[in-house]
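Hi R.,

Here's the input for the NAP complex you asked about:
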Amino acid sequence: MSTIAFIGLGIMGSPMAVHLATAGHQVVGFNRSPDAYGPLEEAGGRAAGSLAEAVAEADVICVMVPDSPDVEQVLTAEDGVLAHARPGALVIDFSSIRPDVARSLAERATEAGLRMIDAPVSGGQKGAVDAVLSIMVGGEEADVEEARPLLETVGRTVVHVGPAGSGQTVKAANQLIVAGNIQLVAEALVFLEAYGVDTAAAMDVLGGGLAGSKVLEQKRGNMLDRSFEPGFRIDLHHKDLGIVTSAAREAGVVIPLGAVVAQLMASARAQGDGGLDHSALLRGVERLSGRGDTSPEGD
Ligand code: NAP
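And here is the predicted structure with NAP in place:
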């Protein structure tokens, strides 16, 4: 059993830390705002008073924060991981960030005497709660194999996809596919409603054919009920589509549908929907067609 520091107990980090504690590891959590420790403490973990304290005794340091600058801060700040972790500790970054940032942070971790892998996840809040995440892992083979039992505690499909940063490249592709899929399910729903079709029945039959997908399965309820509690926030998906469009541009790869859906995600955010689940792309489709009640939430 390992001593694990877990930094970032948000929608994803909290249930993941709970699974590690339930599996018998000593989990020391650190969260910027102090109201997030309840589930971890109930599972036998404990709260640290600072980031430096959380990582000081850890064999493994898990990070699950929103964006590239956040991971940079957690690692490189004065009270951060690189300054306070034990030599040889293994950093597992579960956050979804830019592949180039993941590569350069892994180099800096190595220079500081640590090891680091990128292990972004897919499967949403439900996947985290059920411990069935898909985890795309970049890093040195030996480090990935050492991390594998922990990764398999929070996930079901764990695949080593290449050297440092590769996990983030695969995650960017994942976010491209998911965004496009949500947008098309939303367009199909508004189209079906315009014809007065029984949409729940339509979703049942669509789900059984080639149009079926995890997105349709997991997001149809949100869309049919117009209930957009996150989940995965539009703000975060906007961040991910920024990552994939700029990485594609750097590689000289053209992703026309990706570019359109990135703009639609940006529009949803600009319309005040950034805090809603990404299934709220539906609201943008409704706005374009002059349908539904798409006034800002709370109005
Ligand atoms: P979240 O609920 O917003 O949680 C983020 C956590 O990071 C919070 O605990 C927050 O602390 C902390 N944090 C934010 N900025 C920080 C900083 N600069 N330094 C230290 N801690 C900081 O986000 P989430 O949905 O769990 O997402 C986390 C990551 O997982 C993101 O990269 C996201 O893209 C990825 N992801 C999310 C999902 C999903 O369905 N939600 C699915 C797959 C991947 P406070 O409590 O103080 O704000």
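One thing worth noting: The chain has a mean pLDDT of 96.

Cheers,
M.
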